[in-house]
Amino acid sequence: MGKTFIALATAYSVAIRNPRGPVIVMAPANLIGKWKQDLVTFCELYLENRRPVRREGARREDLTTPEAVRYGTARHSVDLMRLLDDPDPLRCHLILLAQGAMSRSQTDKWVRLAVISEALRQHGRGSAKRLIQVKQQIHRFLAELLWAFGEQRAHEWGDKLWERLLDTEPSEWKRIYNDAVRDKRRHLDDDPVPESVARTLSRIDLSPLAEALKQMPLRARGGQERVSERLKLARAALKEEEQLLWKELLSQARWRSPLLVMDEAHHLKNPATSLARQLQSKDTSRALRTGDGAMAGAFDRMLFLTATPFQLGHHELVRVLERFGDVRWEATQFGEREVFGQRLQTLGTRLDESQRAAVAFQRSWSRLRHEDCEEDLEAWWKAARNSPRDELTTHQRAVVGSFNRTRRCREAAEEALRPWIVRHNKGTHWAGTKIERRRRFDGAVADATGTTGLPVPPEQLLPFFLAARSAVNPGKDLLGEALSRTIRGDRDSAPGRRRRNRTRSRTTGNDQWAAIGTFSTARGRWLSAEWT
Fold this sequence. Notes:
mainly alpha; Rossmann fold; 4 domains; disordered C terminus
């Protein structure tokens, strides 16, 4: 089992027993599809009489069956808010959330309508004559203002639909819209305005948006072109104010989840990035960006997944672990925050000491002279470690001392890391068997006459050679080097000069492909001349 399946097992166990809300799995947008496939595989292999059911577009009877493991996908913050406010029988067990979802600008037409409705309700009364007039006539232009012509044409009420919606609460919009829509396929299967959004709208200042709404036309004067021009100006003003409101709304919206599973958690290594700022409490001293603080204090627990935790720098690893402090903090369970910070500080100190000791050990080892060692290095090293200091040379004592200090520092760092990181190394054999997971076979060389090793067919010499060179020089651009050497050898040969005269007008790319073909044809001569 890989980390994805272990995380799914944890998420499933928490989700089916916790009434506080769905488990959020946050992953890069391009990995959401993989998580869906892994969820299907997980249910097939590890759960009995359970099957995944996607929330979007599913029938009520499919969602409420006891066998359903309900999940939804959210690629925008509005999608997440809609999935979070579902009633218990329909609520998702898991929500797959794209990492960039919370930082995207608000573009949903229903949320935009709710913002307009609340601004008119708060400010379109009393002495605000212009805004009261806009409130009475705005339904005639909302289809074009919101780019919602499809919804208006599909409804029996036409532009009267918007007038009815503006006079009612957003919680009733789904029922009102579905009651008179002509095409049943256009039915809304979820409340168009998330409950958390509607609840937060009453707590934020909408006066700038109300001022922008005063630019709306009251009558269709000057023809459709003139009306569209005025609506365009009003739409631009609304969009500018709406983006500011959406940042504030996301930071104030209150919701709760029992667990966050963060995939590719090494992306949190920089606390100033958009992803990390979403988990942090809103900082009033800095400019608010979309998504800042949107998930601060929303999760009871956090589980971070990464395949490369020890490829991070020590300070970066500590920065990632600091995000655990952004949970919904319960002092009775987690202790005091000051203690949490002190433990991370101790961890960083021990990691630094371990690194410094390892560097010192490497330097001491590099100072060893030939006369300090013996031919059998393993036997010599074992004897050197167990010999009294007086019997060792100066360089040997330095190496042994550095080694012992490095081991102590490493063990101290491992002890500090143990409460934070769960690391699994697969065994040498398959579980419950004596079958080795991996066996090494050394390939036979090109001119070998013996019978040992794997035979390498002549047509596979180039890929085999590149693989061998890659093992010796990891990270080197071997294919590019192979192409450049191949082209150089081809140009220096007589056939290459003749072909170059014939194909002088070709591009460099075509010349490269020709060179590759020539190399395959004459690989024996070039292999010995250019590669070995």
